[in-house]
Structures are given as structure tokens and as C-alpha cells.
Specification:
With about 550 residues, the chain is mostly beta strands. The chain has a domain of about 160 residues: Nuclear Transport Factor 2, Chain: A (Roll). The protein contains eight helices and 31 strands. The strands form seven sheets. Strands 1, 2, 3, 4, 5, 6, 7 and 8 form an eight-stranded mixed β-sheet that branches. Strands 13, 14, 15, 16 and 17 form a five-stranded antiparallel β-sheet that branches. Strands 9-10-11-12 form a four-stranded antiparallel β-sheet, with no helix packed on it.
Length: about 550
């Protein structure tokens, strides 16, 4: 039995979190073991693995150890703190120390609670090497008077420790010339927008061979505001070049450079949609005689008067009909008629925007054929990727959606598509923000990584909300469970993210598989986070 009033339970957790932050976590950060001890009750008992316990995981560059519960012994308060000291003894600082509860059950007497939490500790040694310890903890807290709480049980059920003996990445942005010049007034204006909890997802970064010199260049775009081209100088730095946008109204939030006419030179196309009476259009830039030329109506589609106007998000290119020409998918997010309170549904929204499929007929001539080729619906699409998911020789389309289930469109071999709503990757709503496809395990088969949102608060609240039905509880639980990694096993796709330890990455956005350390296998990099209110006590979103 436990308190199911969400407001009361979360208020108690806030007090517990404040107590743990001020004592155990604060003491760890400062190597102040007396303060850390104040967070532990007099009759405290816990389990925490010794640094040398557990089992080593083979890795060419990193020292990795995994710990299970049975690999640690019961400890009293003094012994527990001694183990923590041994974990951090070689560190010059504790740069990361955090405790986040994903389950909190307050007992009816309001004097005790059981907690499941994630603990993270990290810091450098004198040589610049860094260590990180991540643990899942089952704990019990007791009320100690005056609003203070103490831990009296602390059981590490699983943990992993990683030590990188080499100095980590250095942040060299300004030194390379890859930076923006924002005025203080501009920064203040953007912060004011953030403080209203309005979205500022209006920018993108494109990596491409802009000038054909063999070095990767960068194009940064901020919708209807600025586009900055950073040309790689081949010496480890960037110089600014001229992007072809003469009118800021043409600047997209996302841009794609791809050769659409087969002349060996990339075209530049973005997700900025312009409207005239009865028509919508996306222009593209092409290079002719060494100069950029804008084709304003290259990607055109019907948009009858009074119809909704699309705010597009991702765009991707591929030959969907097998004619040797690259076609373009532009996925819509929302329209000027979206989020009507009478229709909008945060779990299964159907009032987003259409996906547009532009078929390439050569000579930079395109027709929009999404409906006739079977791609329908109006989801809030935030990520799109063309890849041959079923290994039948054609490109299929995956769409990651906000506020609803994802879509997987199976190419039937001729550039027409059928929906696969029962595929595991197109199941419950996940608020998908990014997609990455790779053969990360060298199995010869694609895997699909989806960047979603992991929420400690969501995990807690769904457990407590008694009014939720079974189906809605399952849906909301999926929303809070974080990233997914679908792998192919025995001909079936299965989400293995939690089992492989890659589901919890906070509020995740784009992700990328790449071989970071040149050892022949691919690491997974996931961006996360969001803007913050200037008042740290106010909600961010």
C-alpha cells in the first residue's frame, strides 16, 4: 500500500530529493564525507560494489566493469561511505553527481518511502582521464523531522563503471571559427520566448562537400533569419562563405544537399514551404555555369484556397521507384489548423500535416505523388528515413512522429507504399525526435534506433495514476520509457534498448551510429536536453 495522490507523492519526493542533494550528493561533489554521512540514517544498511568487483567487459580503449547485486556485500554507514571513497579516490573532482528517482512510493504513514533511482558519478584524474559510474538503486528513505529525509536502505541492483584512460574530447568551437555572433539583445529575445515555453526548434546543421575540395563543410540555417556557410580550410578550421539565400524568407530550418539531376553537382533544397493562391511550393537552388540559380517552383503541389498550410520538418532523398533518379520526401509536422482543442490528442494525434513525396522525372522536374502512391495520414512527423528495412531491394520509408504512433511504409517494389501499422517500430506513441539506421553489431542486418523522451517523472506518475485504464497506462508508460533500438532476431524486429542499456538518454533528439575510436564497431551518440527557463524553479516546457 502506498499514497496514490500524485500531487502529495511528488511533493514528498521533492523534499526527499532536496535532502539527498544537500547531504549525500552534495558531500560527494565536495569530497565532504561528513556531509555525505548526514544523508544516511543511523541504522543504515546498503550494498555498493567495490571498484574491483564485478566483471570486466572487453573493449580496446575503455576500461569497463559491470556489477550485479550479488557481487556486493551488506554494508553499514561507515563501510558504505568507504566504498564510495574508493571509487572516487583517484579523482581530482566530482564533476557529475546526480540522483533521479523513476519510482517513488510513499507509505500511508508518510514517514517512509521506497525509491528506485538512477545514480551517476563522474570525474577526472590528474592525467585528464575520466571515469563514470552509473547505477540503478533500490532504496528506502525515512522522515527525520523538520522536512528532512534520510536514506536507511540503499541497494545497487546493477551498475557499470567506465574509465577512459585517454583525455576526452576538447571543445574547440571558437578556435576553429565555427561560431555565431549573437547580440545580447538577440539572446535576451530568445530567452524571453523560451520563458513562455514556446518552441525554438527552428534551426538545423547540414554537413556536405559544398565546394568539392574534398573537405566537409557546414551549413547552419535558422528559419527565415540567417544562413551561415562554414567552409573547411583543410587545416582544422573554418572560414565563412556565402550561402545563396538573398531573401531571408527562403531560409529553411533544415537543408539538404544532394545531386538531383545527375550532373555531379549538388542541389540545395530546404523545408521552407511558400504558398500562393491554390498552390504550395518548395524551391531549390542549382548550380549553372558556376553560379547558384533559384528555381522557386521546382517542388510544387496543390493547396486549394482555404486548405491547411504545412510546416514541414524533415526531408530526405532516395530513388523510391527504381528509375535511377533521386526522389524527395518532405515530411510535415503541423499546419495552421493543427492543435485545435476539439481535435488534438497528445497520444494519438491525427491533425498534423501531410507527408509530401516528390517524384523526380529528370531535368529537375518533379510531381507530388504521396496520395497516389499510398502515403497518407496527418501525423506530427519529426524524423524521416528511407532505407530497405525488409531487404527486398527497394527503399521503404520510416517516419518518427510526435504525439502519436510512428509510421512504417513498405515499398511494394514499384514506388507505391503500404502502411505496416502492426510492425513493432510503428506501435505505441513514443514522441520520436530522431532516427538512425545502421548495422551496429556487424550482423549484416539493419537496426533502427529511435530517439524518444525518457522521463523519470513520467515513470513515477504513470505508476500512481489510479484513474488510468490499462490501455492508456500502457501508452503513457511507453511515452516515458525513452529510446528504442529495434534489432532483427530470427526474422522478427524486437526492441532491445532497455536490455542493451541505451533507452535512458533524457529528452533525446538526433542520434548517430559511428565508429568513434576506429576499432571496427559503431558507437551510438545521442543528443539530448532542452532550453531552460531563466528561473531555475520554473518548468522548462
Amino acid at each position: 500500500r502506498f499514497v496514490t495522490d500524485v500531487t502529495e507523492s511528488e511533493a514528498a519526493l521533492e523534499a526527499v530529493q532536496a535532502s539527498i542533494d544537500a547531504t549525500l550528493i552534495g558531500g560527494l561533489r565536495a569530497f565532504d564525507w561528513e556531509t555525505a554521512a548526514e544523508g544516511l540514517a543511523a541504522r543504515f544498511r546498503g550494498r555498493f560494489p567495490e571498484p574491483g568487483a564485478g566483471s570486466a567487459v572487453g573493449d580496446g580503449r575503455l576500461a569497463v566493469r559491470r556489477y550485479a547485486r550479488e557481487q556486493s556485500q551488506p554494508l553499514d554507514r561507515r563501510e558504505f561511505l568507504a566504498v564510495l571513497r574508493r571509487h572516487t579516490s583517484g579523482w581530482t573532482a566530482v564533476e557529475r553527481a546526480s540522483w533521479h528517482a523513476f519510482e517513488f512510493l510513499l507509505e500511508p504513514g508518510r514517514e517512509r518511502a521506497v525509491v528506485k533511482a538512477h545514480l551517476e558519478l563522474g570525474g577526472p584524474d590528474p592525467g585528464g582521464a575520466r571515469s563514470m559510474l552509473e547505477a540503478t538503486v533500490h532504496a528506502r528513505v525515512v522522515e527525520a523531522g523538520l522536512g528532512q529525509w534520510r536514506l536507511d536502505r540503499f541497494d545497487v541492483t546493477e551498475a557499470v563503471a567506465v574509465r577512459n584512460p585517454h583525455p576526452p574530447f576538447r571543445e574547440i568551437t571558437d578556435a576553429t571559427g565555427f561560431h555565431f555572433n549573437r547580440s545580447e539583445a538577440n539572446r535576451e529575445l530568445r530567452q524571453a520566448i523560451v520563458d513562455t515555453r514556446s518552441s525554438l526548434v527552428d534551426s538545423g546543421l547540414t554537413v556536405a562537400h559544398w565546394n568539392g575540395d574534398g573537405f566537409w563543410d557546414l551549413l547552419a540555417t535558422e528559419s527565415m533569419n540567417q544562413a551561415v556557410l562554414f567552409l573547411n580550410d583543410g587545416k582544422g578550421g573554418f572560414t565563412r562563405g556565402a550561402a545563396p539565400y538573398d531573401d531571408p524568407r527562403l531560409i529553411p530550418s533544415q537543408a539538404l544537399l544532394v545531386d538531383l539531376d545527375g550532373d555531379g553537382l549538388d542541389e540545395l533544397v530546404g523545408n521552407r514551404v511558400l504558398y500562393t493562391e491554390g498552390r504550395g511550393s518548395i524551391g531549390l537552388f542549382t548550380r549553372r555555369e558556376g553560379e547558384w540559380q533559384f528555381l522557386p517552383n521546382a517542388l510544387e503541389f496543390d493547396n486549394p484556397s482555404g486548405a491547411q498550410r504545412t510546416d514541414a520538418q524533415p526531408l530526405t532523398a532516395g530513388d523510391v521507384n527504381g528509375d535511377g533518379l533521386l526522389d524527395i520526401v518532405v515530411a510535415g509536422y503541423e499546419t495552421d489548423q493543427s492543435r485545435d482543442p476539439e481535435r488534438f490528442n497528445r497520444v494519438d494525434a491525427q491533425d498534423g500535416a501531410d507527408t509530401l513525396l516528390f517524384i523526380n522525372h529528370g531535368g529537375l522536374r518533379f510531381t507530388e505523388e504521396s496520395d497516389t502512391r499510398g502515403i497518407a495520414g496527418a501525423r506530427y512527423t519529426y524524423a524521416a528515413h528511407l532505407f530497405d528495412f525488409d531487404a527486398d531491394g527497394d527503399l521503404d520509408l520510416f517516419e518518427g512522429n510526435d504525439y502519436g504512433a510512428n509510421d512504417l511504409w513498405d515499398n511494394q517494389g514499384d514506388g507505391t507504399f503500404r502502411a505496416l501499422p502492426d510492425h513493432p517500430a510503428a506501435g505505441d506513441a513514443s514522441n520520436t525526435m530522431g532516427v538512425a539506421v545502421a548495422d551496429w553489431d556487424n550482423s549484416g542486418r539493419w537496426s533502427l534506433h529511435l530517439s524518444n523522451m525518457y522521463s523519470h517523472a513520467g515513470q513515477r506518475v504513470v505508476r500512481l495514476a489510479r484513474a488510468l485504464g490499462g490501455e492508456m497506462r500502457q501508452r503513457l508508460g511507453r511515452l516515458a520509457s525513452g529510446n528504442q533500438l529495434f534489432v532483427q532476431t530470427g526474422g522478427k524486429w524486437e526492441d532491445r534498448a532497455a536490455a542493451l542499456g541505451v533507452n535512458a538518454a533524457g529528452w533525446a533528439w538526433a542520434s548517430l551510429f559511428y565508429d568513434l575510436d576506429n576499432d571496427g564497431d559503431q558507437e551510438l551518440f545521442v543528443t539530448n536536453g532542452n532550453t531552460s527557463h531563466r528561473d531555475r524553479g520554473a518548468p522548462d516546457y
